[in-house]
UniProtKB/TrEMBL annotation:
The keyword Transmembrane helix applies. It is a single-pass type I membrane protein; Multi-pass membrane protein. Residues 647-778 form the STAS domain. One of its GO terms (cellular component) is oligosaccharyltransferase complex. Keywords: Coiled coil, Endoplasmic reticulum, Membrane, Signal, Transmembrane, Transmembrane helix. Belongs to the OST1 family. This is Dolichyl-diphosphooligosaccharide--protein glycosyltransferase subunit 1. CDD domains: STAS_SulP_like_sulfate_transporter (cd07042). The chain crosses the membrane at residues 227-251, 286-308, 320-338, 371-391, 412-429, 465-484, 496-514, 534-553, 560-577, 592-623, 799-817, 1235-1256. Residues 1-19 form the signal peptide. Component of the oligosaccharyltransferase (OST) complex.
Length: 1402
């Protein structure tokens, strides 16, 4: 098989073609010999003879064996080369220069090189010479290996070799395991001292970043700030030893921090639901316990995943899902930081709709905003943004100018600077004491004691830990793969799981919460030149100094600074929202995954967002496999390349062959779809065995009716049992319908599946190697059948070719004589009616003509005299007569204007007019500005006279047998008229010219008519029509009209009295009627002054008649201006199918009788966001022009509404026709303007709330708020007093019971329990004192007095308890005990009296 050979040409066809080519060659070139000598005349390759000189006959016969037996006998003449050229082009379809032709005609070397370089290099060609490879020949040539042998003996041997290789201890095995367990040994062995400066700079830079960000993320997780430094230290230190990626900085990432914070918050909220605190504060120790237990659980899950080698699970989390999920968590993180930015104390919420409730509480608490905190937040955010976005790029650009820092980029530590400045300012001005700005408070120094997390909490944290483990590992692995490609690392996902598990497990014992990789700090590692994990060790050493010595210096740091750092750090995550546009352009399904994941994360919370996002991602994957793509392939220019036929214009389907490709594995859930797709592609209905109906535009009778089907199996990567059975069943059904099936590019394991399912017994199918093999085999079979047919019909073919040769001769003669055109049409009868009643002369010509030629006539040419060329505004034609097949308007095309003959209008007849046939046409012609006022000026009482010149004969390019002209005047008053040529007669208003006989072509005889015409000479010089389309059910139409009276101008004074006396008013126009659509409503009519109330509206069945009466009558030369507007329902003019809309309306309406609109401008305003706009003018009006589109802005428009602008000159009543506009409009955009209103009102509502509730002063609160807070504090004091009184009562009862039963153990346990309760009460008093420390000094003194009395009461109670113990144990006598007890109880009564006095005062 050669790729340069396409079709085997049957022998009879070669002989016949040779005869034809020989005949043509002898006819045009004779027996001229080829000029091969260099001294002879040289012909250009662009001429036919020059081209034929380039043909190489020897090369042609060498490459075509089938042409050798018909080799030219004789001299090498031009006829010989013509034969070769025609054979090559007609039989072998060659157009490449390397086969037989050195140069193509009319083609330069540059053009030829460009045309061949489009597909391949002109000096490099692929020539394949091999037989067609079927499965049988394949099995003979290719010898299979034993690699796929899965017999039990081979499997046992492979298992034994695996265990020998992996499980037998050896020195080499031990070293490999050590490198796996301790990856730092690999880089430590090759570490160079030259790397140390880079690692040192990198470690210090990252350590500086970790100080503020670690503290901020600890705040985000509702943990003490020192915990952020712990999680910056321990995981990074552990990962430096066990991690494999040298550039990963293990630190709490943004997303995992938010996730961890939500999980910690949820557990804490449920655990302290009965707490009496109202500010949402939590026990720090308990929060640390839950956070460390969560980290331990996450680490254990990582270990379990590593043990079961499940590092691949993150492959199911797509980049689209991670982008939408992290963007959603960024919104939640931002929301959690808003209270710290505003200085509010809110209840932390988790669960579905928590963001909604949070913002409701934020807006309701805006009046409590701490202005000092807000100022600090704004200053910090502005500083961070300015430095990061503007100063840092300039700083890095300047830093690169220094040779030392060209490869090392050190960022500005702006976060650390903000923290230092915030701490100094807070400490210097006592922001916490004076303005109640929240600060970090106690940070502490040193490390916590190693503690075992609360294992009892692990069962309740497993669900949350599993989610954190999967998401954190997915983020870490995606980051690891990015930098592994850059630094050529080998990433082992299971090894990374082990490293992350160790980081979380070991870190949990030292106070670290769950951690993950951070993109920002990893990028800093890379940009600052970090080479190995030594940079992480240096960073940890610097952090160690901070934790041990410097951490306590940041206790005065405002929390607003940390919240600002977090918010600015979220910029990168928020910018991921732009991904939705890119993803949407690539694939809509992925965009749906992003949107659902984002919305579910924001609205429902992070855990639900994760679950829904994964579910939707899996559904998308299943849908793509359930409904994969199917392709119909075509051949590229008869080569071995097969591409999608619909995708490329130069790729065409092969006749009678259907090449089908299924772009997916065929498994149980998509096998039925494969069957349906294949049957649809073939176009067969199995029930009837007939071909299905195909759309006429898509129907190709050759390509659609296929007899052979080629299934390209290159994209079928798998066949399961169910899919294989349906696959073979489909092939059998096609065999039953007489289709021949070929399978190509079938993979060996799929072939084994089909063989095991007994493919050869179920169906008849031929398996070949490639698509081209199948095509070539089919074509060989077709050619064999054609050869047999040609052998039986050899004689008939020769006769056919002879007839074809004779046809070529006659065709050439016809071409030579084609220029001698013979006129064949003859006007047998013409009746011409000229209507001069109005100011627009109308000609109605009824012409009957006959075809007296020998060939059919398709057109009738109508001519307009040269003197009337400029005043013709309309030409139309219809067929007249009982036997007419088409009564509609005929297509008319205006040809070029000849100064001597006039303008020709070519009328296309409804059918060919055969010889001796007749046809009657009615031609209508309307003239504008053809009447001349004579006289040009008249007074108010004079009559209006006009002068009109025309031709007495019918002006035609054809001879006319009989013709008559009838002129109708508005009245019987004719001042004068031409009375030649005879006969001429007049009867009242009608003047008749003729009958005239035997008129030659282009006959002319001018006649002049001078007559009275007082009808309305109204002309609109400017008509503007505004059509505004709304998809809410209405179309608004407004027409602006500038009208003038084009009759004889009025001279002299105008008398209103005379006008009222004479109601006829001669030529004055008092009113006119306008027709509107029958559904028109809300009609208005106004001019420059305002609404005109003199108009009348009359509703009719098919229209609305509007009588317009101007404010003053119109005389010659007078003008008026008015506006007409109305609304119509859109359902009568606007039609749609899905998002495709069609607007069908009139270009103009009936403005007045015998209307003339000199300049018409129509503007159609479509809805905003309409696109793919196409304008279709009226069918028979070629003078409509479309101008460039405009934009129209009205209320609530954002991008503007598209405006289609259309113009036309000299529009008449006959031009009232429909136009169409096709456009696309997404229905969802109907909500655009309502949503704008809703969002605007919501923004206004929020603004009003902010302005109404926000206090812009930095002074203390007003008296009302002070009193309210004081009352709340005193209420808490009373509650604590009641609790303390109850405590002393219980203690007293315990003393009496002790004296009675003398049970020392029971008494001690109860006393210890009561003392713990007393300690809690005392702590609550201390908290209340701190709340009012800056509000009321008097109240502080009272509380201090209260605490003093409480302390005395506690001491007396302890003394009483001790005295009672001595009495029970017998250390003192009863008399002494009684005396001392009365003394102590008297003091307690005095204290209670003082306390009651204090409480009664408030």
């Amino acid at each position: 098989m050669k790729t340069i050979s396409y079709w085997s040409i049957p022998s009879p066809f070669i002989r016949s073609t040779r005869s034809l080519c020989l005949f043509c060659a002898v006819l045009f070139f004779g027996t001229s010999q080829v000029n091969n000598s260099s001294n002879g005349a040289v012909h250009s390759s662009s001429t036919p003879i020059g081209f034929l000189n380039q043909i190489d006959p020897t090369l042609f016969y060498e490459q075509h064996d089938s042409a050798k037996k018909y080799k030219w006998k004789g001299k090498d003449t031009l006829s010989h080369r013509v034969f070769i050229y025609f054979t090559m082009r007609l039989c072998f379809q060659y157009d490449t220069k390397d086969n037989c032709v050195r140069y193509m005609p009319g083609e330069s070397d540059a053009d030829r090189d460009i045309s061949h370089s489009n597909l391949h290099d002109e000096n490099h060609h692929i020539v394949v010479d091999r037989p067609v490879i079927t499965q049988k020949s394949f099995d003979k040539v290719f010898i299979p290996t034993a690699y796929e042998d899965r017999t039990p003996i081979v499997l046992v041997g492979q298992i034994q070799s695996y265990f020998k290789r992996k499980c037998i201890p050896s020195k080499q095995c031990g070293k490999s395991y050590l490198k796996v367990l301790f990856p730092f040994l690999s880089w430590l062995k090759i570490y160079e001292l030259a790397w140390l400066p880079n690692d040192l700079v990198s470690g210090l830079t990252v350590a500086i970043m970790q100080i503020p960000q670690g503290m901020a993320y600890a705040l985000l997780a509702r943990l003490p700030a020192i915990m952020g430094l712990y999680v910056s230290f321990f995981p990074a230190l552990i990962y430096a030893v066990f991690g494999a990626i040298a550039v990963i900085s293990l630190m709490t990432g943004n997303v995992v921090d938010r996730f961890n914070a939500e999980r910690v918050s949820a557990t804490l909220e449920s655990s302290i639901a009965n707490s009496t605190a109202n500010d949402g504060s939590l026990d720090p120790e308990y929060a640390i316990t839950i956070a460390t237990t969560l980290a331990l659980t996450v680490g254990i899950i990582h270990f379990i995943l590593c043990f079961f080698r499940l590092g691949f699970v993150t492959s199911f989390l797509s980049d689209t899902f991670i982008s939408g999920y992290t963007t959603g968590t960024a919104v939640l993180v931002f929301t959690s930081q808003v209270p710290d930015i505003l200085g509010l104390t809110l209840k932390r919420r988790v669960g579905p709709l928590n963001i909604v409730y949070t913002y409701i509480e934020i807006f309701s608490s805006l009046k409590k905003t701490n202005i000092a905190t807000l100022v600090i937040s704004v200053c910090a955010i502005v500083t961070l943004i300015v430095v990061k976005e503007y100063l840092e790029p300039f700083y890095k650009k300047q830093l690169k100018k220094i040779k030392l820092f060209r490869t090392v980029q050190i960022p500005i530590p702006i976060e650390l600077i903000v923290i230092i400045i915030g701490t100094v300012v807070s400490y210097a001005f006592d922001l916490n004491g004076r303005y109640k700005v929240k600060i970090v408070n106690t940070i502490g120094r040193g490390f916590r004691k190693p503690q075992v997390p609360a294992l009892v909490l692990m069962p309740s944290l497993i669900k949350d830990a599993l989610i954190i483990a999967v998401v954190s590992f997915a983020i870490c692995m995606s980051l690891a793969k990015i930098y592994a490609k850059k630094f050529k690392y080998a990433v082992n996902s299971n090894q990374e799981l082990a490293a992350y598990g160790l980081c979380n497990v070991i870190g949990s014992f030292f106070g670290s919460f769950a951690s993950a990789a951070s993109l920002s700090r990893t990028s800093v590692y890379v940009n600052t030149g970090g080479r190995t994990q030594a940079a992480a060790l240096i960073s940890c050493a610097f952090l160690l100094v901070i934790i041990l010595q410097i951490g306590s210096l940041f206790e005065s740091l405002p929390k607003a600074c940390l919240a600002s750092i977090i918010i600015v750090a979220l910029k990168g995550l928020f910018l991921q929202m732009k991904d939705i546009c890119t993803i949407g352009h690539v694939t809509k399904l992925e965009a749906i995954v992003w949107i659902i994941t984002f919305l579910s994360t924001v609205i429902l919370d992070v855990d639900y967002g994760l679950i829904l996002g994964i579910i939707v991602s899996l559904i998308v994957v299943i849908l793509r496999q359930f409904r994969p793509r199917t392709t119909i392939l075509g051949q590229y220019e008869r080569s071995e390349i097969y591409k999608t036929a619909k995708r490329f214009s130069n790729v065409h389907e092969i006749p009678y062959i259907k090449i089908f490709r299924f772009e997916s594995p065929i498994i149980y859930f998509n096998a039925d779809y494969f069957r349906e797709s294949l049957l649809d592609a073939v176009g067969i209905d199995l029930k009837t065995g007939q071909h299905r109906t195909v759309h006429p535009k898509q129907f190709n009778p050759v390509c659609s009716i296929a007899t052979c089907i080629i299934i390209d199996c290159s994209s079928i990567s798998q066949l399961d049992y169910s899919g294989g059975k349906i696959f073979l069943q489909t092939l059998k059904e096609l065999n039953d319908c007489k289709y021949k099936i070929y399978l190509c590019n079938l993979r060996y394991y799929n072939y084994d599946v089909l063989e095991k399912l007994e493919m050869n017994q179920v169906c008849s199918v031929k398996v070949v190697a490639t698509v081209h093999d199948a095509v070539h085999d089919i074509q060989d079979d077709l050619m064999e059948n054609n050869d047999q047919a040609y052998n039986h019909e050899n004689q008939a073919s020769s006769i056919t070719i002879m007839h074809f040769s004779l046809f070529c001769v006659f065709f050439a003669i016809a071409i030579v004589t084609d220029g001698q055109e013979q006129e064949s049409l003859f006007n047998t009868k013409v009746e011409r009616a000229l209507d001069l009643v109005s100011h627009l002369p109308k000609e109605t010509i009824t012409v009957t003509f006959e075809n007296r030629g020998t060939k059919p006539a398709r057109y009738y040419d109508y001519y307009v005299e040269p003197q009337h060329v400029k005043d013709v505004a309309y030409v139309g034609a219809i067929v007249k007569g009982k036997n007419s097949d088409d009564q509609g308007a005929l297509p008319i095309k205006q040809e070029n204007t000849d100064k001597t003959k006039g303008t020709m209008y070519r009328i296309e007849l409804p059918h060919d007019l055969r010889p001796s046939q007749t046809l009657t046409l009615e031609i209508e012609v309307v003239h504008v500005h053809a009447l001349r006022m004579y006289p040009a000026e008249i007074t108010q009482s004079e009559r209006q006279l006009v002068l009109y010149k025309t031709n007495a004969y019918y002006y035609s390019k054809y001879s006319t047998e009989t013709q008559k002209t009838r002129v109708t005047l508005p009245t019987d008053r004719a001042e004068s008229y031409t009375q030649t040529p005879k006969p001429v007669s007049k009867s009242e208003q009608v003047i008749t010219y003729g009958t005239y006989a035997d008129l030659p072509a282009y006959s002319q005889n001018e006649i002049v008519l001078h007559y009275e015409n007082n009808n309305a000479f109204l002309t609109v010089n400017n008509f503007q029509r505004w059509i505004e389309v709304s998809h809410w059910g209405n179309i608004a139409v407004e027409e602006t009209v500038d009208m003038y009276h084009s009759g004889a101008k009025l001279v002299g004074p105008f008398s209103r009295l005379d006008f009222q006396r004479r109601q006829d008013s001669l030529s004055a126009v008092k009113s006119f009627k306008m027709s509107l659509p029958a559904s028109a409503r809300d009609i208005y009519y106004r001019d420059e002054i305002g609404n005109v109330s003199t108009s009348n509206v009359r509703e009719m069945n098919d229209q609305v008649e509007l009588e317009l009466r101007p404010r003053f009558p119109l005389y010659g030369g007078w003008n008026t201006h008015y506006v007409i507007g109305y609304n119509v329902p859109s359902y009568q003019y606007l039609f749609n199918r899905g998002n495709q809309y069609i607007l069908k309306m009139r270009l103009i309406d009936h403005v007045y009788d015998d209307q003339l609109l000199e300049q018409v401008t129509v503007k159609i305003v479509l809805p905003e966001h309409a696109h793919n706009i196409e304008f279709y003018p009226p069918i028979y009006d070629s003078n409509v022009k479309r101008l460039p589109n405009e934009k129209h802005y009205t209320y609530l428009d954002t991008v503007g509404r598209p405006v289609i602008v259309i113009t036309k000159h000299n529009a008449l009543f006959q031009h009232i026709q429909d136009f169409e506009i096709h456009y696309t409009f997404e229905k969802i955009m109907l909500l655009h303007e309502p949503m704008l209103i809703v969002v605007s009102l919501f923004a206004l509502f929020c603004l009003v709330i902010v302005l109404g509730r926000l206090n812009f002063s930095i002074q203390n609160q007003d008296n009302h708020e002070f009193r309210t807070r004081t009352q709340q504090i005193w209420k808490q004091i009373l509650d604590n007093h009641v609790k303390r009184t109850s405590f002393y009562q219980k203690l007293d009862d315990a003393l009496h019971a002790y004296k009675t039963n003398k049970d020392q153990k029971a008494y001690s346990e109860q006393r210890k329990k009561l003392e713990n309760e007393l300690k809690v009460i005392q702590q609550d008093f201390t908290g209340l004192k701190s709340k009012i420390q800056a509000d009321d000094k008097e109240m502080i003194a009272v509380i201090e007095e209260f605490q003093k009395l409480a302390e005395e009461q506690r001491q007396i109670t302890q003394a009483l308890s001790g005295h009672t113990e001595k009495f029970v144990t017998g250390k003192i006598q009863k008399q002494a005990y009684t005396t001392e007890e009365e003394n102590l109880r008297g003091k307690l009564r005095d204290i209670n009296t003082q306390v009651s006095t204090i409480l009664n005062q408030y």
